[in-house]
Amino acid sequence: MREFDEPFPEIKKKEYKKVVVAKLLSKSLVYAFALFGLIFILILFALLGFFKPQANYVAQIPQSAILKIDFDEAISESNSSDLMMDFAGIKKQSFYDLIKTINIAAMDKRVKALVGKVHVSSLGIAQIQDLRQTIENFKKTGKKAYLYSSGFGSLGGGTKEYYLATAFDEIVLMPKTEVGITGIGIEVPFFKNVLEKLGVKADFYSRYQYKTAMDSFTSSKMSGAFYQEMNKLGEGIYARLVYDMAQARNISAEKMVNLINQAPLFSDEALDENLVDKVLFEQDFLSQIESQYKAKFISFSDYASNITDNSKKMPTIAFLVIEGVITDGESSADALNSEIITGSETVLEQIEDIKKNKNIKAVVVRVNSPGGSYNASNEIWHALNKLKEEKKLPIIVSMGDYAASGGYFVALAGDKIVAEPSTITGSIGVLGGKFVLEDLWKKLEVNWQRINFGNNAGILSVNQKFSKSEKNIFNKSLDVVYSDFTSKVIKARNISEKEMDKLARGRVWLGEQALKHNLVDALGGIELALTIAQTEAKLKPDEKIRIEFYPKEKTLQEKIQQLLQNGPAVQTLPLASSWQKEVKQFNLLNRLKYNAILPPIQIEM
Known about the structure:
Blueprint lengths: L12 H39 L13 E6 L12 H5 L7 H13 L3 E7 L7 H16 L3 E6 L9 H7 L4 E4 L4 E2 L5 E3 L4 H7 L2 E7 L7 H4 L5 H26 L3 H10 L2 E2 H6 L5 E2 L2 H12 L2 E4 H6 L10 E8 L1 E3 L4 E3 L4 E5 H13 L3 E10 L1 E2 L1 H18 L3 E10 L1 H6 L4 E4 L4 E3 L3 E7 L1 H6 L24 H26 L3 H7 L4 E3 H6 L5 E2 L2 H11 L9 E5 L5 H11 L10 H14 L5 E2 L4 E3 L1
Parallel strand pairs: 1-2, 1-10, 2-3, 3-4, 4-9, 11-15, 11-23, 12-14, 15-17, 17-18, 17-19, 18-22
Antiparallel strand pairs: 5-8, 6-25, 7-20, 13-14, 16-24, 19-21
Helix pairs in contact: 3-4, 4-5, 8-9, 13-14
């Protein structure tokens, strides 16, 4: 286990007049709306000031403490908060912060034990694998880790939550609830039939048969290639979960499969089958732990708030996060649809900041992305390679739940790539096309007429199908992009063209499969990536270092500007959990506007 930070150091005349008046009126309205917006924000700040916790207040760590973590809280890879969260007194913690905090607690003599809580978590399967290893490291110090659940899922859907729980020394379950380890389901929506009824045709092309993201609109069911890929993913994840859970609970894999097939299992059944260790209400359980250790609980956020960075003059490793869909322009986080967007323009600015920091000795790029725009991914890849060349910095890539398509493209800039066993990797391919509304207009009796000046001027018009020449040009473009993608993989990963053809064509791999095919270098999480970065930077294993997180937290001025641009309605706290599944499904479909993206699969566990 490595030490992250030093913990706790404290025109005509009349017409012209009309134009002038119109302009003045227009400007007046703009300024009026801006003024109303500013007044609204000031009033809002004043109201929030009544409810905001006392400034700079940080709960002190008891001399005998138990670290308490609620894994149901939304934790993303990035740590930037919006203005409303700031005034609500909420400090957003990243997944890296979670890993770091547990590691520091393991070394802190005041922390006697760790208590986790989970019911339905937003963490992905690869993130949970990273977290499980961190819990194992915590236990190696001789400290105990306990997990309480008010039920793993609700009549199913609790498989990944129980998978997390099996890393703990003791699992405690609330009476009359269930362990919903019902296995894994993969769902893919298909809209071809309904689109045809509406008069909409999806005219899309891909490179190649396994690049199936647009099948949701061009087919009415899974193709053979699509089914093959989804089956491979499901089998791989399921086998890993069964093996790890069986090992942790000291039962056979065969028995674990039988229990999964019987699930959901209720409290008493789960206790009898050794899936849990105790059945208690939370209040009774917490009282027992508090009495046993003669210690007081401290929350993850309070404990993390006590951690301060090492001196800025120390050797530093930059930790650059690329999360969500990759697109052109600036990064954004829309709280209304819980979607995080990584913009190439923002990433390039962060890379320039890294170049200016003379103390940075290595860079860890954390990729948790299904892909997105090929051009944006290419820009980031190029900028990372220039960073290596100009500053001679080793770049280590740590892949989260997925680094697919454009996400894997970005990862190719790494000197070493680290993935979790269940990281969705690869999808080396590209697609593109358009929705044709020609038949819809006929149904609506709308008649479009068009005059072209150029043989292919209508290539992107949604009112007509691709002509023969347009189709040839479009497919030639896909060939160029696919060739560029595969040639960069061949060079970066030292893979032959013949082998590349077996790995690419849009195929998707899990991390442990990707390791066998040399698409990644090692299996592990953030901790391993940082250790490799330290070694590659020729820093001593016991040398204290500083981790610089990118993207950096926005200034107050930047957050106010974002609030004015997006409007008060967008800067909200995350949606109620009852909406999150529907929002997630919408986001999966919304991603299909990009040309280097993972299929819209939904893995239920």
